[in-house]
Design goal:
Number of helices: 13
Structural class: alpha/beta
GO molecular function, one term: transaminase activity
Distance between the termini: 31 Å
Radius of gyration: 21 Å
CATH superfamily of the largest domain: Type I PLP-dependent aspartate aminotransferase-like (Major domain)
Order of helices and strands: HHEHHEHEHEHEHEEEHHHEEHEEEH
InterPro entries: Aminotransferase_I/II_large, Kynurenine-oxoglutarate_AT, PyrdxlP-dep_Trfase, PyrdxlP-dep_Trfase_major, PyrdxlP-dep_Trfase_small
Strand content: 5-15%
Helix content: 25-40%
CATH architecture of the largest domain: 3-Layer(aba) Sandwich
Keywords: Aminotransferase, Pyridoxal phosphate, Transferase
Number of domains: 2
CATH class of the largest domain: Alpha Beta
Protein name: Pyridoxal phosphate-dependent aminotransferase
Largest sheet: 7 strands, mixed
Mean pLDDT: 95
Cofactor: pyridoxal 5'-phosphate
Strand order of the largest sheet: 2-8-7-6-5-3-4
Bound molecules: pyridoxal-5'-phosphate
């Protein structure tokens, strides 16, 4: 839905309202159980809370260097080395941002001019079209292929035009749960190098890959540093989505561009919170993979008994479930579930450029509290049984 222009810029009026936001208000009013949003199910590490609290009442509460506290950039670099064996220079290859959300915006702004194109595998995280639209660039959706949602490199190649400047890939992927494999990621990066594009990866779920998989990132792939901006976040891995601390990792040249944007938009993430994050050690990163894998298995099995068509997520926090066996339109199903059953799911329509392509899908998360999730699923079962009987 596009708002009337009025006094607003074309850029802003071209960005539709987020469908999920309206449903969230309704869900709040009726007291629905939310299994739509990926909100971390616990608190940030105590060490971070203590250090952030101390910083608030110390001399540590004025501006930080815009690129982020060096201690925090060093922590991010140390984690990249420890978990992936990738060496990056915290001085001129890491920029601390206000969450991955600002990181993606800064990355796209740094490498595109108005009218340039950004290739976006579809379905996509619902925020991306708006973020790309704000920059004045244009997103070019390229559908993930088949029931397994594979990255179709031929389709990506076919979508490249003289205006293409970047590809924005989220892996592990919200909403499909794909953790793109080595062939897909390195093949995509090769295409980017061949066509002189930048591969921007949103890796906020990097630690959440299941069944023994390892996360594949283009970061550190030899000879490609000028073509990669990797965006990360502490929102998920330290359970601090409200702290708004994320980061961009890129070559010094790309980093200089990202910092120019960042200095003129936010000037930096909140210093006391950066101070808090800097106090954590490797052991504080919350490894809830086993817990989430178990919750994933439970949710998938349950959704299948309700009649959803589900592909097992390989990573991330979400399940994209096929709803065509249950309802003609998933947006209507989701609205009825909120109002009548008191359960909030995300409608598939949020994740496709053409809403019609999302009408057979709903997204749920498996990271929320187990008991509440079971209660939500039971409510759905009762609702679907009544609906079936009345048809
Ligand atoms: C794919 C993806 N990117 C970015 C974000 C937001 O990250 P941050 O809190 O670091 O801005 C989310 C949150 O749900 C997400 O799913």
């Amino acid at each position: 839905m596009t708002a009337a222009r009025g006094r607003l810029s074309r850029r802003v009026s071209g960005i539709g309202a987020m469908e999920l936001a309206g449903l969230m208000r309704l869900a709040h009013d009726v007291g629905a159980i939310d299994i739509a949003l990926g909100i971390p199910p616990g608190d940030p590490p105590a060490a971070a809370i203590e250090a952030a609290t101390a910083a608030l009442t110390s001399a540590q509460n004025q501006y930080a260097p815009p690129e982020g506290l060096l201690s925090l950039r060093q922590l991010i670099a140390a984690e990249l080395l420890r978990t992936r064996g990738v060496a990056v220079d915290p001085v001129d290859e890491i920029t601390v941002t206000c969450g991955a959300t600002e990181g993606v915006l800064a990355a796209v702004l740094a490498v595109t001019d108005p009218g340039d194109e950004v290739i976006l595998p579809e379905p996509f995280y619902e925020n991306y079209p708006g973020v790309i639209g704000l920059t004045g660039a244009v997103h070019r959706p390229v559908p993930l292929a088949g029931r397994d949602w594979r990255l179709d490199l031929d389709a990506v190649r076919a979508a490249i035009t003289g205006r293409t400047r970047a590809v924005l890939l989220n892996t592990p992927h919200n909403p499909t749960g794909r953790a793109f494999d080595q062939a897909e990621v390195s093949g995509l990066l090769e295409l980017c190098v061949e066509h002189d594009l930048v591969l921007i990866t949103d890796e906020v779920y990097e630690r959440y890959v299941y069944d023994g998989r390892t996360h594949v990132s283009p970061l550190g792939m030899p000879g490609t540093a000028d073509h990669v901006i990797a965006v990360g976040s502490l929102s998920k891995s330290l359970h601090m989505s409200g702290w708004r601390v994320g980061y961009c990792v890129a070559s010094p040249e790309l980093t200089a561009g990202i910092r120019r944007v960042h200095e003129r938009t936010t000037v930096g993430a909140a210093r006391p919170l950066q101070q808090g994050v800097s106090a954590v050690g490797a052991a504080d990163f919350i490894d809830d993979r086993a817990l989430f894998q178990e919750r994933r298995d439970h949710l998938v099995a349950y959704l299948e008994t309700l009649g959803f068509d589900v592909r097992m997520p390989e990573g991330g926090w979400f399940v994209l479930a096929g709803s065509s066996g249950l309802a003609a339109r998933s947006d209507k199903l989701v609205a009825e579930l909120v109002e009548t059953a008191g359960v909030l799911l995300a409608p598939g329509t949020s994740f496709f450029a053409d809403r019609a392509d999302g009408l057979n899908w709903v997204r749920t998360t498996f990271v929320r509290d187990r008991e509440r999730t079971v209660e939500a699923l039971e409510r759905m079962r009762r609702f679907l049984t009544v609906t079936e009987q009345s048809n």
